[in-house]
Structure to design on (373 residues):
């Protein structure tokens, strides 16, 4: 059963080795409507924690010229927020660990000044001027303004199973872990984006909430998810459905596994999963991500003994951005990590060779990137 909520996996994991070289982030994405024009817009908010063992009063940045020369590791809370579309931008606000309150138990809570995150609430604001963004490349962000006050109802989870279980978390066996407590989430509240007010309502928020943590990132980096789904066979909205695909090249300790993805489809209360760690299911995956002049394209085909899922998705580059992170070791190797919230496409879902449904996808969160060579 993929839809198994477990808020213990959402608690902060930065202990042991990961306290000295580790990150932990809580990602949220959703769609709202302009209160004045009715225009639809997709947003994201993330709380990213890094290297508490080196925590100080002020944030420590890994990308300054001096810290690069000295090999200083970053340490901070980074609040990342932004929007996709014609004015796509990412905004970053940083806090030192001594300015930040973090609960290391479930349910998770993070608070720094007027920015806060928990299982069911998000609050905060970021304002970056063009002059500040230009003067601080170590912030890795754009200029703009965003404020938010949101409630979250995490309705359907993607629990990957043993790969992120208590023993594996304690051993810190994987280089990058994943848990989607709110694979399908309903958001409500308000966002102010560059002065414009957006209303977020549960039925049209098409929300998503997950977390990743570990010691480094994966390459390639692949993610696709959507709960705005319509059957192309019946024409009906699939109101109790969502799918999620993520991964790339997982590492267990120093050993990199072949290109693999974890995937789940909760289809109107029926569970389909394609999880390489559950070897008895005989999961097989083939995927290709490619870039054209105007689009990023994802093609994924996965199968088990009885089930098969084919996913084809596109997102326009004009709607996307290059999302920025530095790794806990201070290196920034992902510099073309395409990230979007307006993906669209089709999913074919089969069981025992029979087509269950052909599904139209809108408002998909999507990501693809590989390390600089």
């Amino acid at each position: 059963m993929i839809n198994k909520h477990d808020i213990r996996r959402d608690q902060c994991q930065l202990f042991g080795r990961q306290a000295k070289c580790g990150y932990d982030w809580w990602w949220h994405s959703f769609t709202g409507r302009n209160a004045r024009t009715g225009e639809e817009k997709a947003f994201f908010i993330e709380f990213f924690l890094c290297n508490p063992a080196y925590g100080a009063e002020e944030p420590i940045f890994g990308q300054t010229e001096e810290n690069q020369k000295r090999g200083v590791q970053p340490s901070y809370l980074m609040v990342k927020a932004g929007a996709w579309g014609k004015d796509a931008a990412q905004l970053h606000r940083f806090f030192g660990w001594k300015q930040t309150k973090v609960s290391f138990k479930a349910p998770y809570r993070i608070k720094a000044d007027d920015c806060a995150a928990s299982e069911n609430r998000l609050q905060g604001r970021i304002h970056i001027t063009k002059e500040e963004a230009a003067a601080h490349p170590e912030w890795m962000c754009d200029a703009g303004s965003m404020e938010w006050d949101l409630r979250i109802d995490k309705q359907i989870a993607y629990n990957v199973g043993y790969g992120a279980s208590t023993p594996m978390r304690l051993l810190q066996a994987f280089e990058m872990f994943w848990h989607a407590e709110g694979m399908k989430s309903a958001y409500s509240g308000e966002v102010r984006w560059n002065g414009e007010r957006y209303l977020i309502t549960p039925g049209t928020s098409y929300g998503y909430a997950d977390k990743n943590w570990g010691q480094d990132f994966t390459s390639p980096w692949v993610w696709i998810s959507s709960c705005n789904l319509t059957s192309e066979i019946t024409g009906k909205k699939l109101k109790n459905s969502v799918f999620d695909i993520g991964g790339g090249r997982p590492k267990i300790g120093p050993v990199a596994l072949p290109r693999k993805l974890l995937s789940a489809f909760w289809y109107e209360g029926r569970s389909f999963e394609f999880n390489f760690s559950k070897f008895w299911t005989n999961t097989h995956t083939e995927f290709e991500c490619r870039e054209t002049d105007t689009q990023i394209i994802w093609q994924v085909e996965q199968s088990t003994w009885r089930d098969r899922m084919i996913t084809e998705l596109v997102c326009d580059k004009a709607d996307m951005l290059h999302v920025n992170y530095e790794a806990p070791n201070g290196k920034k190797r992902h510099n073309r990590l395409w990230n979007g919230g307006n993906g669209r496409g089709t999913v074919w879902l089969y069981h025992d060779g029979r087509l269950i449904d052909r599904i139209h996808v809108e408002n998909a969160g999507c990501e693809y990137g590989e390390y600089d060579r």
In short: The longest helix spans residues 65-70. The chain has one domain: 17-369. Residues 125 and 176 are 28 Å apart (CA to CA). The helical segments are 17-20, 65-70, 130-135, 166-171.
